[in-house]
Write a structure and sequence with these properties.
There is one protein chain. This protein is an alpha/beta fold. Helix content is 38%, strand content 22%. It is built from eleven helices and 20 strands. It has helices spanning 38-46, 53-71, 76-83, 91-104, 110-146, 171-178, 195-206, 219-224, 250-259, 291-294, 342-345; strands at 2-3, 6-7, 11-14, 17-21, 32-35, 150-154, 183-188, 211-214, 230-233, 237-239, 244-247, 264-267, 273-274, 287-288, 295-300, 303-308, 318-319, 321-324, 331-334, 337-339. The strands form six sheets. It has a seven-stranded mixed beta sheet. Strands 13-10-11-18 form a four-stranded mixed beta sheet, with helices on one face. Strands 3-4-5 form a three-stranded antiparallel beta sheet, with helices on one face. α2 (53-71) packs parallel to α4 (91-104). It binds 5-S-methyl-1-O-phosphono-5-thio-D-ribulose. Residues 48, 51-54, 89, 156, 158, 162-163, 168, 195, 234-236, 246-247, 320 line the site of 5-S-methyl-1-O-phosphono-5-thio-D-ribulose.
């Protein structure tokens, strides 16, 4: 996507380095970070400087290449450290595997590992482009029925920053907007790290797509008032029975959508599917540090500051993801098309 008329991916590689758009600094600062070691990449992933399931998958692929050019080899510990650094999104393993397995198959030349990583990145991004085109068909259908601006609610950030390019849940919205179909987006702020208010809103503003940021608790009311035409979210892992993990708060939106007969759609490339797990309860849920709940960061007089919402003595628990049961999903949008249930996809 374009930023100030220049096309960017959210992660790519250049000579001896992985380059990321620093998502921690958005929307106030647009900063590129140059990562030159595996440890720097792992730190960037853990601190969400690069985040979103497909984007961390692509970063992991480049990280394995980086490890090879720095050390002339990729040892198993380095591979494992990388794939365990964020446990919920299966994409990180998919990306690391694309390069590590190439390496294990006796392809031990930097150029070939570069090609494996580039191929993985390109195919993820192509998948997201196709998700946009397929999902757009759902929006066209809905527009035919409603004949008015479509109000789409989304949670977290499943746009191009989260995916390398295009996005998953936001890709159909970008596609609709560029084809002249009127859309307005309800953007859940997505506490505690505010990926919605900071990143989704920034992406939509860049494309001049109308949106409103709403508190995480507003969705059910808006659905009750008939102000939501569909809910569209991304996923971090979709398992064999169709249950899926996504940013904490997704499940509540799915419950409210079912109660109010609002279609609930989940968009993801095939690399987010994990058929080795039978149901959602088996998905590892990342629990992050409580200081993400305790401190809020923002701009004050053009300076980035952090303030505490409660004292250190207060205890907190910070689950980063939740699980939405397959029974609440109306459609899975993948690069292969639209599927009403996972069995028709398999
Ligand atoms: O913790 P994050 O910001 O990496 O969580 C990301 C999400 O939950 C996204 O919705 C998901 O990765 C889908 S992104 C296309």
């Amino acid at each position: 996507m374009k930023v100030n008329n220049k096309h960017y991916r959210s992660v790519w590689a250049e000579k001896n380095a992985v380059i990321i758009i620093n998502q921690q600094k958005l929307p106030f600062e647009f900063e590129l970070l140059r990562l030159t070691t595996l440890d720097e990449v792992i730190e960037a992933i853990k601190t969400l400087k690069v985040r979103g399931a497909p984007a961390i998958g692509i970063t992991a692929a480049w990280a394995m290449w980086l490890e090879f050019i720095n050390n002339g080899t990729i040892d198993k510990t380095a591979y494992q450290k990388l794939i365990q650094c964020r446990p919920t999104a299966v994409n990180i393993k998919r990306g690391a595997d694309a390069v590590y397995h190439t390496f294990l198959n006796q392809t031990q030349q930097a150029k070939q590992l570069w090609q494996a990583a580039q191929q993985f990145a390109d195919s993820e991004i192509e998948a997201c482009k196709l998700i946009g085109q397929h999902g757009y068909k759902l929006l066209q259908q809905l527009y035919k029925e409603k004949q008015k601006t479509l109000n789409i609610l989304t949670h977290c950030n499943a746009g191009w920053l989260a995916c390398g390019d295009y996005g998953t849940a936001l890709a159909p919205i970008f596609e609709a907007h560029s084809n002249g179909l009127p859309v307005h987006v309800w953007v859940d702020e997505t506490r505690p790290l505010n990926q919605g208010a900071r990143l989704t809103a920034w992406e939509l503003a860049n494309e001049q797509i109308p949106f409103d940021i709403i508190s995480d608790n507003s969705g059910a009311l808006l659905m009750m008032l008939n102000k939501v035409d569909a809910v569209m979210v991304g996923a971090d892992r979709i398992v064999k029975n169709g249950d899926f993990a996504n940013k904490i708060g997704t499940y509540q939106k799915a419950l409210a959508a079912r109660e109010h007969h609002v279609p609930f759609w989940v968009a993801a490339p095939h690399t987010t599917f994990d058929l080795s797990i039978d149901n959602g309860l088996q998905i590892p849920i990342e629990q992050r540090h409580g200081n993400e709940l305790q401190f809020i960061s923002g701009m004050y007089q053009q300076q980035r500051i952090e303030i505490a919402l409660f004292p250190n003595s207060f205890s907190s628990v910070n689950h980063a993801f939740d699980i939405t049961p397959a029974s609440l999903v109306n459609a899975y949008i993948t690069e292969k098309g639209i599927f009403e249930n996972i069995k028709s996809w398999l």
